[in-house]
Amino acid sequence: MTDIKRNPQILYASVPMQSVGPFKLIGDVEVDDMMVPMATYETPLWPSVARGARVAAHSGGIRVTVVDERMTRSILLEAPNAGIATLRLRDIQSRHADLQAVVSQSSRFAKLLDTHFQIVGNLIYLRLEFDTGDASGHNMVTNAADKLIPWILETYSDLKYVSISANYCTDKKVSAVNGILGRGKYVVCETTIPRKFCKRFLKTTPEALVDLHIKKDLIGSIISGGLRSANAHVANMLLGFYLATGQDAANIVEGSQAINHCEVTADGDLYFSTTLPNLIVGTVGNGKGLDFVLDNLEQLGCARKDVEPGVNARRLACIAGATAFCGELSLLAAQTNPGELMEAHIKLERS
Hints:
The protein is of the alpha+beta class. It has helices spanning 45-58, 82-93, 96-103, 138-155, 177-181, 195-201, 206-224, 234-244, 252-255, 291-299, 311-335, 340-349; strands at residues 17-27, 31-39, 62-78, 111-120, 123-131, 160-163, 184-193, 259-264, 270-279. Strands 1, 2, 3, 4, 5, 6, 7, 8 and 9 form a nine-stranded mixed β-sheet that branches. It is globular. 45% of the residues are buried.
């Protein structure tokens, strides 16, 4: 691998960036009139997300809840047979304090939360789950695993090393395990939009949007073979947000495994939500030292020095989720009206 520090010939790709909004968030994050930066070549995203933010703000704001947070790394070990693998795993899982003592040697922020495993033949897939503070945690959990492996092999001499990463993590790949056990921030965004605002801002009705959601997000995802995913284009908003805030853009693979849910309320209004169980973001670490990234994190209130570790990253995850939510709401509304989507792209993208 090329050592970046020894290679001064680094070039930077220029991606159009614009702040959209204003956003109003309530719940785990309380903000009003916040503008959110997005870097993207798909410029119609800016007015689309802004429309979603506008109607949500008029409706009282987007309620954002962080359900859970953890970063994972799975290691792969080999035992003489499945019986010994089972015995060793039972003992390893009973020694949480010992494991944490080893983890503490790798980082003062990494905290081991839990372990899960799968046994395939004589192979041990051990999934380690950590709290990583304000870092997204990729390197932190790998470093912790790198310290744990020698300790495990020394403690259990009949086990052998196979890999530092066993694909049971799961990193930057579509999987079911991340949605079930969690990887990154588990964020839910929701709001109830009065019928009059659906018509005024979204040019549609609650009934039309719910009907499309069922037939597109749910049935369409089922027949396409989608895995733990029922959304219109969450990846679009996440990529724009990730590039603007210095995130590892490849994490949109698991991050876009999001699920929309909506219904018409008893009062005839629209309840709409977007749930993102695998949202991986951080406010410190690689990529965060660029000037424009620092400016954007400060703009979002996610670079504060006077808060506990983890607070900035949780806030960033809430804003990322809300950005995806707004784009989902706006696009689905547009698709209830024949020709609206293409008209917007022709108007905004063709010179």
